[in-house]
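Internal tracking record. Fields below are filled automatically when a chain is submitted to the structure queue. Please do not edit lines marked as system-generated. If the sequence contains nonstandard residues, flag them in the REMARKS field before resubmitting.
Queue: standard
Priority: normal
Entity type: single polypeptide chain
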Amino acid sequence: MFAVPAKAADLLVVGGGIVGLATAYRFSQAHTGKRVAVLEKEPRLAAHQTGRNSGVVHSGVYYKPGSLKARYCVEGRLQLEAFCQEHDVAYEQCGKVIVAIDDAEASRLDEIERRGNENGVPCERIGVERLRELEPHAAGVAALHVTVTGIVDYVGMTQKLADLLIESGGEVILDARVSGLQTRADGVTAETTAGNYTAPLVVNCGGLHSDRLAAMSGANPEARIVPFRGEYYELTADAQHLVKNLIYPVPDPQFPFLGVHFTRMVEGGVECGPNAVLAFAREGYRKTSFNAGDLAQALLFPGMRRIALKHWRMGLGEMWRSVSKPAFVKALQRLVPEIQSEHLQPIDAGVRAQAVLPNGELVDDFVIDSTPRVVNVINAPSPAATAALQIGQHIADQVAQRLD
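SYSTEM-GENERATED OUTPUT FOLLOWS
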């Protein structure tokens, strides 16, 4: 029996989330005539991190000045705004407030404001009177008003990127789970459930499985992906008036996540959350989701054990909020005291693909690493969706240089 020959392309992108599609789109726009194929293991695009986040277009106010996160978020936000306007993707620049509920938190606003100014992010320190004008039901003694934060339909944007890619001659293959990457001197063959595909170069935008795909390519990434589930509630219709736009807490510098917050969605409604708990599966969207291999890999990884030792107290609090709705409500009431349990109804959770080092440090920046034939996007948590077009441009430039 004859083997079916692999389908050929000039570039393969693994992962049909917004970063993968933005990369494919950027490359196809700059290199007309080149054949680009996106391989997505699910029957639809944006099925994981892209389609399960809070839909926020981040400003870049939090990130360390000079980091890829800071630069790419600011640049990517401007590109996203222009793209949405040109291609009629739902988007709104509504602004947000970062609210300090006491004097200790107010003093921490200084560092956020300093970073925002250094990153070129318009932000304004405001007092209680102005806060009440913007968010009449928010508690707080002071706040930072970040005017350029927005909300967007990331799923719609991803689909539009796919449509444009296909119009330019590219291809999007669904139900194409990659089971192997066979590298050779002249290229790579991706073995998938939809057949084999070959190209001179592959870009790995595999999100929750990016480290595993990197290992398939022959790389030996130091960091390991650890999945953290973020659980959300939605405000009932009679409580949505309590939030006008976006209300965020002042982040705890000892904890690597932002804390629960309120987000008005571009399609309507208000989300509340997320918390951050270890998921017992890489795609563990439910509390009962369990994958023995995923969990064993996480628990046996030295970095995960060190995180647990360092943040055990905060971790227990997150787990308690996961199982106790009253505890979740109490956390939300710090920002909006009028919130009651009956105002909240559960909605779908998301899972954040967070790269962790063996010493227990969470990788704080985007990480794009390469072997001779594969570009691996190892760490692309928030604000990667906001920065997707800029990340895609960066990778497309790398790919073009290699192909040349």
